[in-house]
Design goal:
ten-stranded mixed beta sheet; 12 strands; TIM Barrel; 17% strand; 38% helix; alpha/beta; 11 helices
Length: 322
């Protein structure tokens, strides 16, 4: 019996050939670096559960953003640690809020870096939930008003894109209406459209100091077993005016990214979240894996699944390796 004419290994023998025929590549342009901004000056407070990540004061955030821009990464997304918290998360929509002040400072020093503002209340509320509460229930429609106020304040302070992540029904429509009425119709919305109630968020809650004081967020974030529901959420957000949509987390939801890419025409973002980051860091620290190779493989998998943009704490490290 004759050997097959087509030998698949012919294009695998040399590294230059493998690069030439690679179907999927991850460039710095595909990445978004999350950052945590805190009060003070000269403050760099390491996050113990996220090696290599820190809460940074505004002066150091500006310096970090300059380095990120110089590496070719086009955007950062900012999360704030406020000086004070209250039941309604008023620092989230204060024009003197920590993220608002950081964005104004960044725009002066690094004007060509795209600034994405997370729009949620969990970092700012004394109870740690994503909206106004009644007992232990988050009130949906009352929260929409606060989210819209936050988005307008952030856009006025320099946010190039606002990214609602509270998973309140109708949040995109409320924010779009608020932005338009404030004369900010050109501000795009990146919707956390399929945000799952995931066990992978633990280190982020350390970094953002946003763990809920009671209960959990399963009453408004998506249930992990559900696929069709995710596609319905994405469709609703697009109908309400989302310009880009996000799937979060990334690695356990590659199937959702793929289906979203096949079904919808808008750009798809995926969030390579804190738990995914921490697991790789921990395994690498123990010598069980080679970090750079695993990071490259993970980011390639997310892109191959269909993500146009990847929010990842590895963005800066990966861009340096490029």
């Amino acid at each position: 019996m004759g050997f097959p004419i087509r030998r698949m290994r012919r294009l695998r023998g040399m590294a230059p050939v493998r690069r030439m025929v690679a179907e999927t590549r991850v460039h710095a342009d595909d990445l978004i670096q999350p950052l945590f901004v805190c009060p003070g000056r000269g403050v760099a407070r390491p996050v113990s559960s996220m090696p290599g990540q820190s809460q940074l004061s505004i002066d150091l955030i500006v310096r970090e953003c300059r380095e990120i821009r110089d590496l070719g990464i086009p955007a950062v997304i900012l999360f704030g640690i406020p000086e004070k918290k209250d039941p309604l998360g008023s620092e989230a929509y204060s024009d003197d809020g920590i993220v608002q002040r950081a964005m104004r400072a960044i725009k002066v020093e690094v004007p060509d870096l795209c600034l994405i503002a997370d729009v949620c209340l969990c970092e700012y509320t004394s109870h740690g939930h994503c909206g106004e509460i009644d007992g232990e229930r988050v009130k949906n429609d009352e929260t929409l008003v606060l989210l819209a106020r936050s988005a307008v304040s952030l856009a006025r302070s320099g946010a190039d894109i606002v990214a609602p992540s509270a998973m309140m029904d109708g949040q995109v429509a409320a924010i779009r209406r608020g932005l338009d009425e404030a004369g900010l119709a050109s501000t795009p919305i990146l919707a956390y459209a399929a945000k799952y109630a995931s066990a992978f968020y633990g280190p982020f809650r350390d970094a953002a100091e946003s763990a809920p004081a009671f209960g959990d967020r399963r009453g408004y974030q998506m249930d992990p077993p559900n696929r069709r529901e995710a596609l319905a959420e994405i469709a609703l957000d697009i109908e309400e005016g989302a310009d880009l949509v996000m799937v979060k987390p990334a690695l356990a939801y590659l199937d959702i990214i793929r289906e979203a890419r096949d079904r919808f025409e808008v750009p798809i973002a995926a969030y390579n979240v804190s738990g995914e980051y921490a697991m790789i860091k921990a395994a690498a620290a123990n010598g069980w894996i080679r970090e750079d190779a695993v990071v490259r493989e993970v980011l390639t998998a997310i892109r191959r699944a269909g993500a146009d943009l990847i929010l990842t704490y590895f963005a800066k490290e990966y861009a340096k390796r490029l």
